[in-house]
Amino acid sequence: MSTIRVAHCDADYDVLVENIAEAVPKLAGIANGRRLALVSDTRVFELYGRAFASVALDEPVLVPAGEAAKDWSVLAEITDRLAALDVKRGTPIIALGGGSVGDVAGLAASIFKRGCPIIHVPTTLLAQVDSAIGGKTAIDAAGQKNLVGSFHHPLLVIADPALLDTLDERQMRSGYAEVVKYGLIDDRGLFEWCEANGGAVIAGAGTARRAAIEHCIRAKARFVSADPEDTLGTRALLNLGHTFGHAIEALAGQNLLHGEAVAIGMVLAFEFSAELGLCPADDTERVKTHLRSAGLPVRIADVGLIGPAIFAAMRADKKWTAAGPTLILAKGIGQVFVARDVDASRLAAFLA
Ligand SMILES: NC(=O)c1ccc[n+]([C@@H]2O[C@H](COP(=O)([O-])OP(=O)(O)OC[C@H]3O[C@@H](n4cnc5c(N)ncnc54)[C@H](O)[C@@H]3O)[C@@H](O)[C@H]2O)c1
Ligand SMILES: O=C(O)C(=O)C[C@@H](O)[C@H](O)[C@H](O)COP(=O)(O)O
Ligand SMILES: [Zn+2]
After folding, report:
1. What was the pLDDT predicted at 322?
2. Phi and psi (nearest 5°) for 265?
3. Which residues, other chains included, contact 156 with Cβ-Cβ below 8 Å and sequence gap of 6+?
4. Ligand 1: does its nearest atom lie under 6 Å from the Cβ of 186?
C-alpha cells in the first residue's frame, strides 16, 4: 500500500493505492455512523459495488456508462436521487467508476445542498492516473466538452490497481495515453520507460502497471499541489493535447474515447511545435511511433475527421481567449510549455 498526499489549501487529501477490501473499512470512520451515497454505472456496480455494502446506502445512484453520463439530464437525475435518498448536507458521496462517473458525481457533490464531500474510487486506468485527482468536475453541454463544471477536490481517493483486471483493452489503451502524457510534459525518463514497458502496462503483466499508476499519481499530485485550481500556468501543462483533443472528441461523438482523442491531440501539438521550429522532428516522430505502437490513433484521418472542422471546434474551447488560442507546445519530449501567443492563422493553416 502507498499513500500519496495532495496539497490543497487547508484541506490536503490522500490518494491510497490500496486494495479496496482493505481501504473500505477506513471509510467507516469517515461515515461516522451515516450510510454514504454511492454513484456508479451498472457494469462497475455489478463488479465492485458489493465491496461497499458495509458503508454505502442499499440503493446506489446509477448513471449511464461512459461519456453519456456527463450530461445535464444525468446531473439532475443524480441530485434528484440524492434528495430522494435523504442524503444530508455534508455527507460524503462515493464515486465508483471511470472518469465520466467521477466528473459528473463530483459536480453533483459540489452543488448538492451547496456541497457534499466526494470520495473517488477510480476503476479505469485513466481515472486512477488522472481524473480522480485534482478536483476538476464537468459535464458536456452545447456540444462542447467539459463546458460546465467546478473545482471540487476530493476528501479521499482510493486507487486499487486490481480493479483494472476487468477493464477492456481499448479502455486500457485510452488511459495509457494519459500515462504517456506525463512523460511528454516534463519526464523524458518516464517516456523512455514507457517505450520499453508500455505493452506490459496495457496487458497488466508483472509490476509495470502498478509502477505506472503510482508514478503518474505522484506526478499529478505534484502539478495539482503546486497549482490546485489551474490559475498559475503550471497545472495547465496537464492539458497537453487537450485543446486539439477536446475538439476532436466533440466532433467524433461518443465513438471516440478521451485518451484516443488526446493521443491525436498530443501528436498534433508536437507536429505543430516542429512546424514552428520549436521542437526536433525526430521527437515528434518518436511520440507518434510510440502512441501508434500502443494501439492508439495518431492522425485525424484515423478517426475520419478533417483539419478545418477541428480548427472551428477549437475556437469554442475554454482556453481560447479574446487574444486567441492558448496551447501547450513542445521544445522536445519532456519539455512542454504554455504558449499564449499562438498565431491563429498559422494554426488554421497547419490544420488545413
Ligand atoms: N477530471 C479530470 O481531471 C479528468 C481527467 C482526465 C479525463 N477526464 C474525463 O474522464 C472521462 C473518461 O473517463 P474514462 O477513460 O475513465 O472512461 P469512462 O468513465 O468514460 O468509461 C469507462 C467505461 O469502462 C467501464 N468500466 C469502468 N471501470 C471498469 C472496470 N474496472 N471493469 C470493467 N469495466 C469498467 C464503464 O462501465 C464505462 O463503460 C472523459 O469524459 C474525460 O473528459 C477527466
Ligand atoms: O487535471 C487537469 O488539469 C487536466 O487538464 C487533466 C486532463 O487530462 C483532463 O482531461 C481535464 O478534464 C481537462 O480539463 P479542461 O479544463 O481542459 O476541461
Ligand atoms: Zn485528459
Report:
1. 87
2. -60, -40
3. 13, 14, 16, 27, 30, 119, 120
4. no
70 lines ligand 1 (CB under 6 A): yes
- As to burial, measured by CB atoms within 10 angstroms (0-12 exposed, 13-18 middle, 19+ buried), residue 210 is middle
User: Looking at per-residue confidence, does 190 or 32 come out higher?
Assistant: 190
pLDDT digits (tens, 9 = 90+) for 28-85: 999 989 999 999 999 999 999 999 999 999 999 999 999 999 999 999 999 999 999 9
pTM value is 0.98
10 Å CB burial of residue 297 (0-12, 13-18, 19+) is buried
The alpha carbon of 100 and the centre of ligand 1 are apart by a number of angstroms equal to 5
ipTM: 0.99
Nearest ligand (C-alpha, residue 149): 2
* CA–CA distance, 225 with 242 (Å, rounded to integer): 21
Topology, domain 2-166: Rossmann fold (3.40.50)
Domain 169-351 indexed as CATH 1.20.120.450: no
What number of other Cβ atoms are within 10 A of residue 132's Cβ? 30
| Structural contact between residues 93 and 108, judged by C-beta atoms closer than 8 angstroms | yes
What is the three-class DSSP state of 153? coil
Domain limits of the chain? 2-166, 169-351
104 CB-contact burial (10 Å; exposed 0-12 / middle 13-18 / buried 19+): buried
Residue 220 labeled ligand binder? no
pLDDT value at residue 316: 87
Does the beta carbon of 41 lie inside 6 Å of ligand 1? yes
Reported for 207-214, long-range contacts at CB under 8 A and 24+ positions apart, including other chains, are: 209/125, 209/161, 209/164, 210/17, 210/161, 212/129, 212/179, 213/17, 213/125, 213/128, 213/129, 213/159, 213/161, 214/2, 214/4, 214/17
In this predicted model, what pLDDT tens digit does every residue of 214-256 receive, in sequence order?
999 999 999 999 999 999 999 999 999 999 999 999 999 889 9
